[in-house]
Amino acid sequence: MAMKVHGHVLSAATQRVTLTLYEKELDFEFIAVDMKSGDHKNEPFISLNPFGQVPAFEHGDLKLCESRAITQYIVHEHPNKGTQLIFRDGKKMAIMLMWMQIEANQLDPVATKLAWEFIFKKMFGLETDLVAVEEHEAKLSKVLDVYEARLTNSKYIAGDAFSLADLHHLPIIQCLMGTPSKKLFDERPHVSAWCADMLARPAWAKVIAMQEQNKDL
Amino acid sequence: MAMKVHGHVLSAATQRVTLTLYEKELDFEFIAVDMKSGDHKNEPFISLNPFGQVPAFEHGDLKLCESRAITQYIVHEHPNKGTQLIFRDGKKMAIMLMWMQIEANQLDPVATKLAWEFIFKKMFGLETDLVAVEEHEAKLSKVLDVYEARLTNSKYIAGDAFSLADLHHLPIIQCLMGTPSKKLFDERPHVSAWCADMLARPAWAKVIAMQEQNKDL
C-alpha cells in the first residue's frame, strides 16, 4: 500500500513531506498537482483537501492535509526506518513540540512574507515592496536572535539530534538563502552553521533533485 | 512539583492551557502576568518565553511556551488522569494532528482578526472596521463550511471523542459567541451543536469562573 503525495515540487509545504519521506527512507508515489491550471482548487483534489492547498497525502483509506500533521504521521508510523526525527522522552518531546510551534507561529509567517516579496512577486510580474521588506526583516531578526541564543547551547533546535522541529524549517530557509534576507542568517554564527548543516543533508539533496527534474510543472 | 502557568485569564492561549489542566483534573499554580504594565515583554517573564507572549509554563526544570505544545505535554504526561483528550491509534492520531493544524492555520488566524475588530479594538478605544469584518467573515464562512461537512459525519472534530483538536478551539469560539460573528456558527446546525456541547463542559465552566474572579487583572 503505497503512500501518495499530491503536491508541487516548488511548494515548501510539499517539500516538508517529501523530505520526511526521504529521511525515513520510505518509498512513495508523487502526483504533481497542476497549480497553474488551478487543479488544487477543484475536484478531485479538494476531496483530499477541502482547503485547496498542497500537499495532500493518502495512505490506504487515510487522507490527510496539513504538512506538519503528515510529517508527524509518517514518523510515528515508521519508528525504525531511516532517521529517528523525534524524541521519545517526555521532556525532550515537549521541547520538540514547542520548537515545532515556534517554527509555525513565529518564524514561518514572516519568512513566507519575505519569500513572497523577493521570489513569488517576481513570478507574477509584481514589484518587491522595499518598505514591507524592511519591516519583515526587522521582525525576522528578532526571531533569529532567539534562535541564535538557543543554538549557542544546542546543536539542533530541539536537542542534540536532528528532528522534525529542524526539518520543518528547511524549505523556507532554502528559499530565503536565494534572497537578500540571507544576510540575517549569515550574521548569526550558530544559526548560519545550523542552516549549513541541514542544507547538506543527503535527504535534502533528493528534494532539490526532484525539484530540478520537475521544474517545468 | 507543581505545574505553574504564567498567563492572563483573558488570553485565549492561556485558556487553552488552563482548560487542559482542568480537563485532566490536575492541580496547578496560576501566576497572573500584568500585561497592562508590559510584564510579558520584560524579565523575568522573557526568560520563560523570549517571544514575550503569554502563557509560559514551568514543570520543575522544564520551561515551555506555545500553548499548543504545552497542552500536548500535559496530556502525554498524564495519560490516566481525567479526560483522555488524545487518540492512541495511529490513523486516529493522524486525523487529530491534522485538525489541530487546521485549527491553528485555517480557523484561528481569521477568528482572531474578528475578535480584534469586535472586542479588543473597543478596549483600546478604536473603531471596528466594518469592511475588514466583511472580508474576515467571508473567509471564516468558507472555513466553517468545511467544519459543517466534517461534523455532519463525526460527533467531534477529530473523531467520536472530545480531544485536544476540539479543545484548542474553545477560547476563540467563546470569544466570537459575544460578537455579531456568532451568526456564522448559528447558521450551521452541526457546528452550532458542537459549540454548544463544548461550551457546556464542566472544565470550561472552571475557566470562565477563573476569568470572573480575576477580571480586574
Automatic annotation (TrEMBL), chains A, B:
PROSITE patterns: GST_CTER (PS50405), GST_NTER (PS50404). Keywords: Transferase. Pfam families: GST_C, GST_N. Gene3D superfamilies: 1.20.1050.10, Glutaredoxin (3.40.30.10). It catalyses: RX + glutathione = an S-substituted glutathione + a halide anion + H(+). One of its GO terms (biological process) is glutathione metabolic process. Its EC number is 2.5.1.18. InterPro entries: Glutathione-S-Trfase_C-like (IPR010987), Glutathione-S-Trfase_C_sf (IPR036282), Glutathione_S-Trfase (IPR040079), Glutathione_S-Trfase_N (IPR004045), GST_C (IPR004046), GST_Phi_C (IPR034347), Thioredoxin-like_sf (IPR036249). This is glutathione transferase. It comes from Nepenthes gracilis.
